Amino acid sequence: MIPIKNKEGIARMRESCAIAATVLSKLKELVRPGVTTYDLDQAARDFIAQHGARSACYGYQLASRRYPAYSCISVNEEVVHGIGSLKRILREGDIVSLDVVIEYNGYIGDNATTVPLGTVSPLVAELLRITEEALYLAIKQAQIGKRIGDISHTVQAFVESHGFSVVRDMVGHGVGSSMHEEPQIPNFVDRKRSRTDEIRPGMTLAIEPMVNLGHYRTKTLSDGWTVVTADGTPSAHFEHTVLTTDKGPEILTIPRPVPFSA
Ligand code: MF3
Ligand code: CO
Q1: Residue 63: CA atoms inside 13 Å, Cβ hemisphere, count?
Q2: Strand, helix or coil at 236?
Q3: Could you tell me which residues come within 8 angstroms of residue 95 by beta carbon, excluding any fewer than 6 positions away?
Q4: Which bound ligand lies closest to the C-alpha atom of 240?
Q5: Gap from CA of 73 to ligand 1 centroid (Å)
Q6: N or C: which end of the chain has fewer CB within 10 A?
Q7: Domains and CATH numbers, the chain
């Protein structure tokens, strides 16, 4: 069952998502050569605390492991779930994916972006542009009466038409009082899911294309978290949390002061 949020749940989602977006935008401003990914993660921790929120990443449990950082910072060939490290010093030409997931008042906001450091190669710049555009095309599909599969198909067709590949090992997801709710939102058409769920009003969806410059295959490093491309090519990730309404999709992860006054 896909959770449908009521008025109260939607109001809270608006706040948690506004905080997640504000933290992400502040973090983005700190990305420059010479900074370590540890510094960025510490900044994420501080920004989240300043908003009276909690990192939904820190302590997140998968099998017997707990995620040890406050945000996910994934450089170049790292796809997602990179752990900030003092050893990882950012350099001109890197691309850095920042993924911020916070909980506030019992509700979760989830968003991500990929930032280029200075000048990157034209092909990598294209990878970022296409992945971000794929996100916005996907969001446009989040219309009442369409299906989750319309999102999947749109992302895959667009990305592959530009010669890049869509990650298959991780998917977008519903988000609400838990980080991962139904439905799963693959960025590719999955033959095993023949009839996907219909989109209805009041769903909150984390739509998040992860796109590789080379092959879609990934592997997980020995730290148990960091997912990298199997062929070592760069990867990009853009994500918004979106509310479905009768008037169309509404992006919730937009920076705004919280609590809302009106
Ligand atoms: N946005 C990621 C997701 O939806 C965040 C993962 S948090 C971590 O799965 F704890 F797994 F790192
Ligand atoms: Co997510």
Answers
A1: 3
A2: strand
A3: 75, 76, 114, 115, 116, 117, 120, 124, 127, 128, 234, 236
A4: 2
A5: 11
A6: C
A7: 7-251 (3.90.230.10)
28 CA to middle of ligand 2, Å? Answer: 17
Measuring from each residue's beta carbon to the nearest atom of ligand 1, which residues come in under 6 Å? 57, 60, 67, 72, 81, 99, 101, 110, 173, 206
Mean pLDDT for 221-234 is 98
Cα of 123 vs centre of ligand 2, distance in Å, is 26
Q: What pLDDT, on a 0 to 100 scale, did the predictor assign at position 262?
A: 53
Q: What Cα–Cα distance (Å) separates residue 21 from each residue in 119, 224, 239?
A: 25, 27, 10
Task: Determine the residue type at 126.
Answer: E
Report pLDDT digits (tens) over 123-171.
999 999 999 999 999 999 999 999 999 999 999 999 999 999 999 999 9
CA proximity to 103, closest of 202, 183, 27, 13: 13
How buried is 145 (Cβ within 10 angstroms: 0-12 exposed, 13-18 middle, 19+ buried)?
A: exposed
Q: Which atom of ligand 1 is nearest to the CA of 80?
A: 2
Span 59-72, average pLDDT: 97
